[in-house]
Amino acid sequence: MADPMKRTPVREQNPEVRAKNFDEVCFGYDKDEAMDEATRCLNCKNPKCVQGCPVSINIPKFLQELKAGQVEDAYNTISESSALPAVCGRVCPQETQCEGQCIRGIKGEPVSIGKMERFVADWARENGIRPKSAKERNGHKVAVIGAGPAGLTCAGDLARAGYDVTIFEALHKAGGVLSYGIPEFRLPKSEVVDKEIENVKSLGVRIETDVIIGKSVTVDELMDEEGFEAAFIGSGAGLPMFMHIPGENANGVFSANEFLTRNNLMKAYLDDYDTPIHRGKKVAVVGGGNVAMDAARTALRLGADVHIVYRRSEAELPARAEEVHHAKEEGIIFDLLCNPTEILVNEDGWVRGMRCIRMELGEPDASGRRRPVPVEGSEFEIDVDTVIMALGTSPNPLISSTTDGLETNRRKCIIANEETGQTTREGVFAGGDAVTGAATVILAMGAGKAAAKGIQEYIQSKE
Amino acid sequence: MYPILHADKLAANIYRKVVRAPRVARHCEPGQFVIVKIDEEGERIPLTICDYDRDEGTVTIVFQPIGASTQRMKDLSEGDAFEDFVGPLGKPSDLIDMDPEELKKKKIIFIAGGVGTAPVYPQVKWLHEHGITADAIIGAKNKDLVILEKEFREVCNLYITTDDGSYGRSGMVTKCLEDLIEKEGHEYNHCVAIGPMIMMKFVCLQTAKYSLPTVVSMNPIMVDGTGMCGACRLSVGGEVRFACVDGPEFDGHQVDFDQAMKRMTMYKTEEGRALLRLQEGDTHHGGCGNCGGDK
Fold first, then answer.
1. CA nearest A343: which of A289, A389, A297?
2. Is the pTM of this model over 0.95?
3. ipTM of the complex
């Protein structure tokens, strides 16, 4: 055993090689490495890591099982709390959650919980082990709207408790942001996402794609005519924000949503697919979150030189630390404290450059981060042919505007009780980005879990 | 899967498919659109609804093959199926929600161009079913490209014009409109124009002269059709609007057509490449600039 203060290192694709392919960056632990890392867990009596986990996985228990080589037991422990462990092991911001609370982290490096979760989930998949389904069905019908992290979690929990669950998905494929947003090199689709969805289906959950709630059918119709006793809305935050600066409608300016959807969901990077995508030569991605990193690293893999343009400094970048680190290794250039003021357009309507202004940090704003302020007279131009806006998203009003009695706040987020998911409309629950605005996969899963409990209590109270 | 119950060819390069899609058929209204996808590898293609039958649970689409996916779609016949068929998307035509008394006062002229004739049909049909007979102009390049004539004749007063004069009147739809208003004494207080963007642009320039309110149906590039991608954004009255959720119908006098037409060319090169691969099939070994075959 090496230095117990240090994590077992994880193997990754060489940055120069991976910058040209869409294969997964991180290879993950093998069994020996995972078991080795598990020995670093102090098995605390009062485990802070569990408190840091939005779905409260019994982390010390699964790590003790892993340490003993009982990987299947470890998988069952995780599955009691999480429907998507292979996903969470890859995309959770562990540094601010479980690992951020780890006692090991006080003096040394925290235990690498995420990488071990990933190993356990991958091992289970490779060995054909599936989550345990309900022994009996109770005949109660629940509709889940949106097959993203919140919806899949809510549906999985309800199905395990014996409920008859149908998920309605607007796109042609389930997964939500796991399918359309997060790229293959960070979260493999057919290998990981599709398999986790298969696991949820194996619990008895039906998924109906191509159904846009509010258009193809309304929540009221689902409940009044199709016999659903309760509904969970996990429709996400799908609407992209733009900057409203001149030139933003020029050819070559894309929302990160469009760019990533074309590449991830519609597989534009593969020749067999009809989907077109604009492969820029010099691309600026505006924003500093995970989506900005994903868009930048995707553009890089499609052959472009890529700059991240972010108005605050490195310390404020909202992306996961690992993503920023990987992006830098791959050669993405960070233009920090820099904000676009205009997109410059050529005669044919295409982007020919972007005018930016330097920023400096002022007093903290409502988010607690220091507010960026423009530096007078510091405008300059950067030479780009493509601009991708990754500024965040807001909830789609399609459902709230077509459901009687469903109230939203001024940010168009559905109002829901944090503990039960209950909305202002009886029998209708909500969670995830549709309630909070754009957040993370795991927070959405936590909300889906809470709502599954809320829905069970609601249906039981009616009996 | 969404089975095709009937498939035919309306004109050279214009195809019609009647598709079973009960959820869409139950809720769709004139003016709305659907997104269809032929198979796993296909693109999501937005198409305005041409007709629907709520009892049969069917929706009719009409399209002109342009890219690789629509080229493959044209060959689907009865018994085949679309993998995906989603909708109804967008807002219904304003006429549908108008007060019936107010609607009766409208003197409406529809202007349909090319394959844009298809989405005009459910609107004139709906009006006819509600006791209103509108005037409609169908414009096409030549006689062979005039579609849905019989269907239109049953539900409206129809004027046909062809660019080359091979059928009906001679000239563009704008000339026909000018003749109807200036020479033949027709009066209109509402116009709906659907067709190629260039046609809608010139119709709007002309109706602006008559101060004739004009609604257009925009068909920009789209991915999801639910407001998620922002690819379909347009400038309307100086504001950014999404055709998929704010439209597809807009006040034509407020639309920035020049920008919209430029945006339509965004993926031309990429679409051309995909088409080349499709046409050349197994014999494709480069030239598309994408597959690496020529490196």
1. A389
2. no
3. 0.87
